[in-house]
Amino acid sequence: MELLKESVDYAIFFILGLMGFITVWLTIERWMFMRKCRPEQYATKTDYDTALTNNLTTLYIIYSNAPYVGLLGTVIGIMITFYDMGQSGNINASDIMTGLSLALKATALGLTVAIPTLIIYNGLQRKINVLSSRWDEQNAPEGAQA
User: Fold this and answer.
1) Rounded CA separation 146/141 (Å)
2) How many Å apart are CA 51 and CA 30, to the nearest integer?
3) For residues 20 and 30, what is the distance between their CA atoms, to the nearest angstrom?
4) Which of 42, 65, 135, 137 could share a disulfide with 47, CB 3.0–4.6 Å?
5) This model's pTM is above 0.85
6) How deeply is 71 buried, as exposed, middle or buried, from its count of CB atoms within 10 A (0-12, 13-18, 19+)?
7) What's the pLDDT tens digit per position in 90-112?
8) What value, to the nearest 5°, has the Cα angle with vertex 61 and ends 56 and 66?
């Protein structure tokens, strides 16, 4: 039980830190790609849209699952707190509150990763919609442009 108590925070923080790093990495990659991407480089709109949306699934997975990873850390922390209380036979309110407050830090970190990733994902989706509409404008039939 001591090994679990010592390692759970590190494991959860490592996973959430990795998720945050991947988010930053993919955000920079997508931003740089969209700055240099031109519709005329692609033969079809499907190819263009596929190139634009590359890596967005990973961002979606991160923003939708980071809170759950944090929640897992919190639940494990609460379980450890209750286990320690049961083993010691001592029901001290300050020990309980300290254990619970420390357990909640994992949820806070999960939300800290998820919220910016959601904002970035939605911003990239908007940018993709704008860029995709440029394909339609550039490739409209001659008489169709107003």
Assistant:
1) 11
2) 10
3) 15
4) 42
5) no
6) middle
7) 777 787 787 788 789 999 999 99
8) 130
